[in-house]
Every structure is written in C-alpha cells, then in structure tokens.
Amino acid sequence: MPTTTKQQRVVDAPLLRKVAANARLSLTEEEIKLFLPQMKEILATFSVLDQVKTTAAWQPMQATELREDKAAASLAQEEALQGTAATKGYIKGPRV
Amino acid sequence: MRSMITEWIQDLRQGASAEEKVAKLLEELQKSNMEDHYLNAICKEQAIAAARAVDKKVKSKQQLGKLAGIPISVKDCLCVKGVESTAGSKMLKGYHPLFDATAVERCRNQDAIIIGKTSQDEFGFGGFSVNVGKDYQIPKNPVDSERSCGGSSGGAAGLTKKANIPALAESTGGSIVNPAAFCGVYGLCPTYGRVSRYGLIDYASSLDKIGPMATSIEDAALLMEIIAGHDNKDATSSTTLVDYYTTSISKGVKKLKLGIVKEAFPDNSEVESHVWKSIKKLEAAGSTYQEISLPKNAAYGIPAYYIIAMSEASTNLAKLCGMRYGMQEKIEGDYNTYFTKVRSNFGQEAKRRILLGTFARMAGYRDAYYLKALSVRKMLQEEYAKAFKDVDVIITPTMPIVAPKFSEISKLTPLQHYQMDVLTVGPNLAGLPHLSIPSGTLRKMPVGMMAIAPPWMEKRLIQLGGVL
User: Fold this and answer.
1) Residue A20 lies in a domain
2) Which residues of A touch B300 (CB under 8 A)?
3) Which candidate from A1, A38, A95 shows the least CB-CB separation from B413?
C-alpha cells in the first residue's frame, strides 16, 4: 500500500473506531471525545519526523544467538494450566 | 552513603538473625505501605522462609552468597515465582508466575531475600507513577508526599530511599534514572542486552532493560555484577564478558573526558547549577570536560521513542486476551466479543498507547510512522557514537526539574507528560548504559545527574559514582 500523505493521516472519529476495533478495545463516546484531540495533537507533533532525511535502516542491536535445538525440561501440563479456566487439560476459550 | 549490603552481612556474621531482621522489616513495611504505596505485593511467608534458610547456612558455616539475607524489592513487571506479578495492571490480577525472572533467580542464587513487588505505572506507561492500573494506588515521594516518585519504577525508588532496600527496576525510556533522580538514589540502566529479559512482562522488547537501584554506588555495582551476563533463555542477551563493577568504584576519574550536552543545559536553572557542582567535583578529581552538541537527539528523540515504544507495546499487549493467565471474565460470545470485554480492564494510558501504537503500524501509516521512527533511531544512535569519539562519558541532568507535585502533574496533557522524558529517551533508544547519581537537593527535593557511557562501559559510570 502506498504511503499516505500528511493530510491523509489526520485521525477522525471513524478512523479511531477502526483502530480501536483492530486493537480489540471498546471505546465509549466519552473516551472517543477524550482521546481524539489528544491523538491529533500527539501525531501532529510527532510528524516532525517527516522532515528528517534518513538513509540507514534500523538494525537490531545484538545479533541473535540461537541456542542448540534440543529438548529440555519444561512445565508440566497441569502446572501450565493452573490459574486458568482450564478443563480436562485444555484452555477454555470463547467459541470461534 | 555506606553500603547497606555490607552492613547487613556484617550484622549476620556477628550473630544477628536474618529471620528476625526480615520479619521486623516486613512488619514495618506492611504498616507504612498503607500510606506510601511502594509495594503492590509483600511476600511475607516466602521472605521469612528464605531468611530462615540463610540463618541455617550461617549456623552450619556454609558458604554465604554475596547477598546473604539482604532484602531486595522487585518491580512488579518482573516475574517472581509464586508471587502475584501484574506489571501494575488489573489485566494481570491473579497471575502467579511459575518461574523467576533470570535477574530475580540470580539474586536468589546469592541468598537474597525477595520481599515484594514494587508499584509502577501500568506496564511502565508513564514518568510519574500516576498511570497505575485500575484499583492500584499511586506511590508518594519519600521526601514530600505531595509529590511524585517519578516513574515508571516509582515504588522501587521510593522504597529504596525510604527503607534503604536495594531494588531490581526496569527501564524502557528512562524508568530507572527518572525515579532514581526524583527520590535521590542511584539508578543504573545497563546496555541493552547486558541483563537477561527472561521473565520480564514486556513493554517494548527492543528497548526494555533491567537494572538496579540503591542508596550507595557499592550496592548498585554489586547488584549489577550479579544480574548481568548471558542467558540462553533470552536470545538478545549478550555474551560480552561482564566486568567486575565493584572494583571500578575506587578507580577514580583521572583523565576521563566528559561531554556536557549543550541542549540539556538550556536556561541556567537551579537543577542545572546543581549538576554543574557535580561536574566541578569530577573536574577536581582529575577529569576534564568539554561542551558537546546532540541536536538530533534533542529534536527527534521524543517522537522516535514514543512511536517505537507504543508500536511494540501494542503488539506485546495483544497477547493479553484473558484466557491463559491473569484477568479472566465469564466466557461468552465469540473471540472478538470476549477479548474486547476482558481488555476493558486496561487503564486509560494503556488504552491510549495501544491505540497510538496500533495506528502507527496500520497499513498506509506504517512507513510514515513506525519505519520512519526506526530509521531515525539509527540516526540518533550514530549521533551518540560520533560524540563518543571525542569524549568518554556524556553528562546531562537526569530530569530537567525536581519531582513535581501531583497537583501540577494533573494539569499536564498526555503530550506534555511524554515531553518530560526529553533527556532520558536518547540513551534508551540508543541502548546505552546510563546512571543517575544524586547531586544534592533543591529546597529538600533531590536532583540527579545522568552519566551516559558507550555500550558495555557500565564500569565507567560506576567510576564516576565512586567519586561523587
């Protein structure tokens, strides 16, 4: 998808609702009223990065050193499931 | 201040009982915590059992660990086996980890006594510890209860100052040095990858670091020496050899070249003049100083940091779905309905950051925000690397102000709140070790000086701490 222009990046209430749905957050009308101007102010200020000419791409700070792939002791099933609404060795979740 | 660890161990060797000392301390903390709110959980039974085991070791003349009988507090975002660990969030209420974070385990291996979990901004989302999760209490500054402890490791710094207990804290964008400065203790944030993040309830994985707080440089250095080093449970932990930090304390600062960041001393404030007094002390001890400029960090540090941190946070918090651990609601409806319901337990700042981070990663916006911020991060890191060709240590105030009053904080907009981190986000983005050193008081409120070193040069910071 092409990069949006600065004008296209202004957040409005329908876009905020879409973002919230993507993040699985439900917002009340009061929260939308509160968050919308705050997000507009924050994103407008952060758009200062648009002016920066950068060439280098980010590299992770450390090379990831992978450990040898071999089996080791881990949590027992009943231990891992303690503190959940598990039944018969399975995690209980909502229907799909 | 003298090393608390040395004094406690001396007491034990002279016949004092670790169990009695720890029991007395916990009793006091249980009372004082009603007022100052430094602890989200106190693990009394576990702590007393550990202290009893130390007494047994003393009696049977077994070799004692370097932290034998020493009470240590742990920030709530670090997992402690069997002790509720929530990162200050209602979303994780009831979560009792089945394992210790590596940093905690390494302290226990040296016979430390874990006494409880310290309060913090929810998941680390703040600089004043006022963004605690729903149903949590805000910690109060130990010097003035109308003021903030700083954040996000606010409870850790407050307790370290008030009860002289060393702490394991955590920083993403300044959460160790900020509260250390506001409460008047040492706070050491190491190079990214120096301390294993295994068992850390993450905020932003490319930025999170675990480090100590203490009332003396000796104790901070010893704790760092114990927790640092490679861990095969964290692929980003480094195999770079760990220095003997405790031997750096007395090495002095002769011929060390300090770089004083011009942009961090803009207006001859009283905080700045206190930091200058410390710089002059370092000069008297044999170091030299020169002015340096980091204009890109000053201009772009805050937006780059917040875009990256929020983007990573919004993905990290996506795993909190109320099924496997922590908060669970009555299971009904489909996946999306259930997840949305359980995620209403996030506090307001957590929601704000999830929204901003999700937005910055969405198709059409990702290039302009997240990827742009990553390339700016590289540029800011290079600005530091260039500065370190001329100087050995970089100096700024830790925070531009002393701990503010809660009444002042409540007037800040979220953006103004974020902008308070202007001095601390730079070394955090660049993954550089940094130390806040107490630098006197201003009308009783502590001032901190921040020293920043090149990667893996924590020992240089400790040399400075040893002189001041």
Assistant:
1) yes
2) 48-49, 52
3) A38
Give Cβ neighbours of residue B281 (< 8 Å, ≥ 6 apart).
Answer: B467, B468
ipTM of the complex: 0.94
Q: Specify the DSSP class assigned to residue B81.
A: T
The reported pLDDT for the residue numbered B30 is: 98
What is the predicted pLDDT for the residue at A89? 84
Residue B111 CA, chain-centre distance (Å), reads 22
Euclidean distance between CA atoms B244 and B237, whole angstroms = 18
- CA B386 remoteness from chain centre: 27
User: All domains of chain B, ordered by start, with CATH?
Assistant: 4-248 (3.90.1300.10)
Distances A19 to B233, B320, B329, B348, B362 between C-alpha atoms, Å: 34, 17, 23, 16, 8
Taking 70 as the pLDDT cut, the residues of chain B under it are none
Centroid of chain to Cα B454 = 19
What's the start-to-end Cα distance of chain A, in Å? 30
Evaluate the CA torsion angle B241, B247, B251, B253 in order and state its sign: positive
Neighbours of B365 (CB within 10 A): 21
Closest to B202 (Cα-Cα) out of B41, B90, B313: B313
- The model's pTM: 0.97
| Assigned token pair, B133 | 């999760």
Cβ pair B351:A31 closer than 8 A = yes
- Find which of A42, A66, A90 to mutate to test the B interface (most B CBs within 10 Å of its CB): A42
What residue of B is the nearest CA neighbor of A66? B235
Please count the CA atoms within 13 angstroms of the CA of B333 that sit on its side-chain side. 10
Residue A87 belongs to a domain: no
Using a CB-CB cut-off of 8 Å, the residues of chain B touching A62 are 192-193, 236-238
From CA B172, how far away is CA A35, in angstroms rounded?
A: 23
Range of the domain at A20: 1-50
Catalytic residues of B: 75, 152, 175
Substitution target in A11, A41, A58 with the highest count of B β-carbons within 10 Å is A58
Q: Do A23 and B355 touch (CB under 8 A)?
A: yes
Number of domains in chain A: 1
> SS3 sequence, B441-458?
EECCEEEEEEEECCCCCH
Would an 8 Å CB–CB cutoff place A12 in contact with chain B? no
Confidence (pLDDT) at A82: 84
Return the amino acid letter for A70.
K
Dist. CA B293–CA B264, nearest whole Å: 9
Of B346, B365, B378, the CB nearest to A4: B365
Structure tokens at B156: 């850790």
CA distances from A16 to A40, B54, B336 (A): 10, 56, 17
